UniProtKB/TrEMBL annotation:
It comes from the Eukaryota. InterPro entries: Metalloenz_LuxS/M16, Peptidase_M16, Peptidase_M16_C. This is Peptidase M16 C-terminal domain-containing protein. SUPFAM superfamilies: LuxS/MPP-like metallohydrolase. Transmembrane segments: none annotated. One of its GO terms (molecular function) is metal ion binding. Gene3D superfamilies: Metalloenzyme, LuxS/M16 peptidase-like. Residues 33-61 form the Peptidase M16 C-terminal domain. Pfam families: Peptidase_M16_C.
């Protein structure tokens, strides 16, 4: 049975891996993680600029909704920038 969320991912992300699996990784990979790996992964990759926000439902004002999101996201800390030489 295919869930609606799986169908949505397949439709929206047909051009990349997200259409085939969740971005967090394969189950056999996740089982090998320890607390430090999870913390490090979260600090490295989980921040607003690296996220996708889906809004579903009746929205009275798109501009007000965008403004409210921007206000809330702007107070979140930015990730450390890594420089590769």
């Amino acid at each position: 049975m295919v869930h609606a969320s799986d169908q949505l991912l397949q439709h929206l992300h047909s051009e990349n891996k997200l259409s085939k699996r969740f971005p967090i990784g394969l189950e056999e990979q996740i089982k090998k993680w320890d607390v430090e790996k999870i913390r490090s992964f979260h600090e490295r990759w989980y921040f607003p600029a690296n996220a996708t926000l889906y809004i579903v439902g009746d929205i009275d004002s798109v501009s007000k909704t965008i403004y409210q999101i921007e206000v809330r996201v702007s107070i979140l800390p930015s990730p450390l920038l890594l420089v590769f030489n």
